[in-house]
Amino acid sequence: MYQLIKQIIKTGIKTDAAPLPDETLRVTAQRLHEEILHVFGSALNIRHVDAGSCNGCELEIHALSNAYYNIEGLGIKFVASPRHADMLLVTGPVSRHMVTALRRTFDATPEPRLVVAIGECACNGGIFCTNDGSPDGGGESYASCGRVANVIPVDVVVGGCPPTPTAILQGILTAVSAQK
Amino acid sequence: MPINHPNLHLTQLAGAIPAWSGKIKPDDLQPICRNVHDGGGRLVALWGSDDREQGNGYALHIALVNEAGLICLSVPLPAGQPAYPDISSIFPVANRMQRAAYDLLGIYAHEGRDHRKWLRHGAWHGGSFPLRKDFDPAPSRTDDADSYPFVQVEGQGVHEIAVGPVHAGTIEPGHFRFSVVGEKMLRLEERFGYTHKGIEKRFESMSLQQGEKLAGRVSGDSTVAYAWAYAMAAESIAAVTPPDRALWLRALFLERERIANHLGDLGYLGNDVALSFGFTQFWILKEQVLRNNGALFGHRYLMDSIIPGGVAADLAEPGKRTLFEECSLLEREVRVLRGIYEEHAGVQDRFIGAGRIEPRLAAQLGLCGLAGRASSQAWDTRVQFPCAPYDQLDVQMATYRNGDVAARVIVRFDELFESLRLQREILARLMPGGQLSLPLEKLPALGFGAGMVEGWRGEVLVAIHTDKDGNLARVHPHDPSWQNWPALEHAIMGNIVPDFPLINKSFNLSYSGQDL
Ligand code: SF4
């Protein structure tokens, strides 16, 4: 026990300052009212859904919980059930085999719900899909439906392969901050 | 010759590891597999290809490994009836691979005992096969509700718990069907394929360079291992050897990937037994490794750092100093944390005896990688087939007998220290200057090559076949999780349900890597 406590004291506090919201990540008009944001207060529950990612984006979502980003310190918590969630964090191109599970998870999340698409794949299908050449891509394949927005409505997208924890945090904060 | 059999003529492949290839008739498949099995060899991978454009039918390919090296065999199959003798009775691990080969290509095992689909759910019709060259996605599409016959356990008081595909934590999707009595797990059946996103088909429309990027995204936590195995396969076909500096840097990247993943897992294993202190501490260390990767090589997980013919990231002298300091820090801190884990009665009580795979069962199942080594399966590609620069590094393999969660933790600690030692050694030998890559634009026509790399989880294999223009005709990436997932079904038997997350984490297998 002595060693353990000594190690905790020696480690000290490592947490970095949180990033500011970034309006350019927003893809839809804000669907939330000021009051609701007020209700969310400084507590936000997130349910993560891997809809077919390579697991790279998950690594960075895990990193959000480390002492440097300390996401729980901001009042943001990952929860086990969509029924407890205010926000879905969705990664990956949506594989056709995950469409039903993703839709059901979305339906089980109480309104008002926010959806943040994490990573290049979630934004436009990424490397796994042939893009059709249109400006926002969204390509499909026999096994994949492409971007998350092809399956459920998305509020904020965060690109990057994988996006850094800071970028993910910024996306989350953008989604919960009222539109200017 | 790595195997002796009258009907087998092998040609040695050029490249970094000892590898051979050969063609055999379907009738010789079982005897040869049995021969390799009886000699202590294993099945690494099984895949198929559509060779009709070359005037043939289909082909089954298997990669076997014994103490001589990697043996890749092709079995041509007629287009009309592409069937081959079942090998899952010799190598149980072949079961899911054979089923996947049917789902994707329509080649099948005669007398196979399990004909359930594996990678196909409801996205395309059972009679259409995505890896056939004439596959047309539009008419094959269905939105059929998916049904899958799980094996039922009968008996008084037995009930089922169905978990997934969306799990409670931040992990990849898959389905677990438990049959339990009270808290005790009698049986687990896994069902995967949820993240199947058509990776193998996607390779076929890509250039060599794009394929490298895709290989690095088969399983994000093993990007270096896949990227290296892909490059190794391409370099084997082209018979080129990357410059020395590139090889040393690749080994540095691979060990850093192992360090980062082992740190992360050790943290989560603490967390899963309610010691969140472990998570906090190990993830501080992991984050430092990732930040150094980002600052020195431009990517926190080193994606796209390896290219065919060499590497795309370099290390300057000041960077070396940073990494030496990192080594000292990690060695110091991990030693303290290991002491805390080992002396914590609550932690050890949960670790010891949980999720055990006896060495004999491990051998039967072909368990590989770090989980295999924790059950006495002494295979480590870096030791048995040391490609440059491992041939100069004398890697010490970590093995343990007990095969429980505690053993998998011990192997992780030992490998972590060994990787730190290797990192020091690599840094000391990495001389300034020297080329980073050779030009490798295109591959020769109708070539075949394979690369195998010991990733942090186990051996990662990538096989490449080129067509008559030297384009990628077929690329098969193989994850060690194919071998180890079935073992998890055995490991949990008799344990209690609340220990499942811990046991599962102690393996930490890939979904995306096996779903493809
Ligand atoms: S964005 Fe990159 S890291 Fe994330 S799932 Fe896609 S390929 Fe993997």
Architecture blueprint of SSEs:
The complex is a heterodimer of chains A (180) and B (516).
Chain A: H1 2-11, H2 34-40, E1 44-50, H3 56-63, E2 76-78, E3 87-91, H4 99-108, E4 114-118, H5 120-124, E5 156-158, H6 165-176
Parallel strand pairs in A: 1-2, 1-3, 3-4, 4-5
Chain B: E1 11-12, E2 19-23, H1 26-38, E3 42-50, E4 58-66, E5 69-77, E6 83-85, H2 94-105, E7 108-110, H3 137-140, E8 158-163, E9 175-181, E10 184-191, H4 199-203, H5 208-215, H6 223-238, H7 244-272, H8 276-297, E11 306-307, E12 310-311, H9 317-343, H10 345-351, H11 359-365, H12 369-373, H13 381-384, H14 405-429, E13 448-454, E14 459-466, E15 472-478, H15 481-491, H16 500-507, H17 512-515
Parallel strand pairs in B: 2-5, 6-7
Antiparallel strand pairs in B: 1-2, 3-4, 4-5, 8-9, 9-10, 11-12, 13-14, 14-15
Helix pairs in contact in B: 5-6, 6-7, 7-8, 7-14, 7-16, 8-9, 9-14
Bound molecules: iron/sulfur cluster (SF4).
Iron/sulfur cluster binds at residues 53-54, 56-57, 91-92, 119-121, 126-127, 161-162 of chain A.
Q: Structural class of the helix and strand makeup of chain B?
A: alpha+beta
Average pLDDT rating of chain A? 84
Describe the largest sheet of chain A. 5 strands, parallel
What is the first-to-last residue Cα distance of chain B?
Answer: 33 Å
* Helix and strand element order of chain A: HHEHEEHEHEH
Main pleated sheet of chain B: 5 strands, mixed
Global geometry of chain A: globular
Oligomer state of the chains in this structure: heterodimer
Approximately what portion of the residues of chain B adopt beta-strand conformation?
Answer: 15-25%
- State mean pLDDT of chain B (0 to 100 scale): 93
Strand order of the largest sheet of chain B: 1-2-5-4-3
Ligand catalogue: iron/sulfur cluster
- Our Rg estimate of chain B from Cα atoms comes to 22 Å
Unreliable spans of chain B: none
- How far is the N terminus from the C terminus of chain A? 50 Å
